[in-house]
């Protein structure tokens, strides 16, 4: 099995985990098209932690990192005291988007190919994305994109009969919104075409969408509109303030854990940038909670340990316009981690070359993500406990 996993492969791995080590619980909720948002638990200790991946489905490495970390626990490659911690895993926050983007991948990159072939596809995708970014800077090019043309045969019709409702909706969405050819590979939203991280009452695009502004993505994705339902950016489905089922389920789940147990922190995984975001300064007032400097310092101390074990940059600037910023505000010591430094999701973070003379950022991208972030979680958990026992975050 290659480094890239499709939706079915992810679930095959999850279903085959040792149930005596990691237990599958009932889903935290269901999507609009009826897909479960699965929940798994390791341990039975006092201190509860939530780990999520795949809010943005094109950031595929985030799903796969969480799943591989779960495997490492089952295989005893990492040691976390099950009597001290209870870890909740939501490895696929956005199942509809994951089905879309991994189906697009499989239209070109089949299962079972050699590692060398898979790596070649990843590098080609990266190079094409980089070329298109250069074309935008030089010529203002908004035309068809090389990295999308690689996946020009990835249309809604590639979804099989299990996904007919999702397929039929996507076919209409592509037609109504004139979505660009090959853009299923860039699908970050859920199946309805709503960006889950932008789907918040104070989202940064809401007022601009309300004003009828055309909003385009940047660089190699600048042929995709963010003000319309589609691959990325759109903040709501039909009316301002309408919250998607995935976000409803996630907020309810966080609140249940916090209200019933000692929730000491959470890790939210995205891609890319090699960045650990903590609660720092902002020009915009936090709309959900007034955090003391002590609370912010706790968040920073935890982030510093995580960054120190990955080599990632620390970033504390907060705009308070995303679902992640709401989770970071309402729940103690939540970190947002951007996996991998190489731009161009969903494929670039799977590059894993170790060639003499290679650009340093290209070397063992995938392996370093898995190894360094696994170690960072282990090293960060005791610091979360320490911060928690020094006094809970303000409520």
Can you put this structure into words, describing what you see?
This protein is of the alpha/beta class and 395 residues long. It has a domain at 7-96 and 263-389: Aminopeptidase, CATH 3.40.630.10. Helices cover 38% and strands 12% of the residues. The chain is built from 11 helices and 8 strands. It has helices at 7-15, 60-74, 95-106, 115-139, 146-149, 164-177, 206-210, 245-260, 293-310, 323-330, 365-389; strands at residues 22-30, 36-42, 47-53, 85-90, 262-270, 275-277, 313-315, 334-338. Strands 1-2-4-3-5-8-6-7 form an 8-stranded mixed beta sheet, sandwiched between helices. Strand 1 and strand 2 form a beta hairpin. Helix 2 (60-74) packs across helix 11 and helix 9 (293-310) runs antiparallel to helix 11 (365-389). The radius of gyration is 20 Å and the shape is globular. The chain starts with 6 loop residues before the first helix and ends in a 6-residue tail after the last helix. The mean pLDDT is 94.
Sum this structure up briefly.
The chain is α/β, with parallel strands linked by helices and 395 residues long. 38% of the residues lie in helices and 12% in strands.
Give the tags.
12% strand, Aminopeptidase, eight-stranded mixed sheet, globular, 395 residues, alpha/beta
Describe the protein's topology.
Elements: H1 7-15, E1 22-30, E2 36-42, E3 47-53, H2 60-74, E4 85-90, H3 95-106, H4 115-139, H5 146-149, H6 164-177, H7 206-210, H8 245-260, E5 262-270, E6 275-277, H9 293-310, E7 313-315, H10 323-330, E8 334-338, H11 365-389
Parallel strand pairs: 3-4, 3-5, 5-8, 6-7
Antiparallel strand pairs: 1-2, 2-4, 6-8
Helix pairs in contact: 2-11, 9-11
């Amino acid at each position: 099995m290659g480094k890239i996993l499709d939706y079915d492969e992810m679930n095959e791995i999850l279903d085959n985990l040792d149930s005596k080590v990691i237990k599958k619980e009932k889903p935290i909720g269901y999507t609009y098209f009826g897909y479960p948002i699965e929940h798994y638990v390791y341990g039975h200790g006092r201190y509860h932690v939530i780990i999520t991946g795949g809010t943005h489905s094109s950031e595929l490495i985030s799903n796969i990192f969480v799943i591989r970390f779960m495997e490492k626990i089952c295989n005893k490659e990492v040691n976390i005291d099950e009597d001290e911690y209870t870890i909740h895993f939501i490895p696929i926050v956005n199942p509809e988007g994951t089905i879309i983007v991994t189906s697009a991948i499989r239209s070109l990159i089949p299962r079972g190919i050699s590692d060398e072939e898979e790596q070649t596809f990843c590098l080609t995708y990266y190079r094409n994305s980089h070329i298109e970014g250069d074309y935008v800077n030089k010529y203002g090019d908004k035309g068809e994109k090389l990295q999308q043309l690689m996946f020009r045969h990835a249309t809604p019709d590639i979804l099989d009969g299990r996904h007919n409702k999702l397929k039929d909706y996507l076919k209409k969405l592509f037609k109504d919104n004139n979505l660009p050819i090959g853009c299923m590979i860039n699908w970050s939203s859920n199946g309805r075409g709503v960006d889950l991280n932008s789907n918040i009452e104070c989202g940064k695009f809401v007022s601009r969408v309300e004003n009828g502004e055309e909003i385009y993505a940047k660089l190699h994705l600048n042929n995709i509109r963010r003000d319309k339902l589609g691959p990325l950016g759109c903040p709501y489905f039909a009316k301002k303030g309408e919250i998607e089922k995935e976000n409803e389920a996630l907020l309810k789940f966080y609140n249940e854990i916090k209200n019933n147990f000692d929730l000491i922190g959470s890790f939210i995984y995205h891609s890319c940038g090699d960045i650990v975001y903590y609660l720092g300064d902002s020009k915009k007032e936090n709309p959900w909670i007034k955090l003391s400097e002590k609370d912010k310092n706790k968040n920073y101390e935890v982030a510093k340990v995580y960054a120190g074990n990955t080599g990632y940059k620390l970033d504390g600037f907060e705009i308070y316009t995303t679902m992640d910023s709401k989770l970071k505000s309402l729940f103690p010591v939540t970190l947002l981690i951007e996996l991998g430094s190489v731009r161009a999701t969903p494929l670039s973070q799977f590059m894993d070359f170790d060639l003499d003379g290679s650009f340093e950022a290209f070397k063992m991208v995938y392996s370093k993500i898995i190894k360094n972030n696994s170690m960072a979680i282990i090293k960060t958990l005791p610091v979360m406990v320490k911060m928690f026992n020094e006094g809970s975050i303000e409520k």
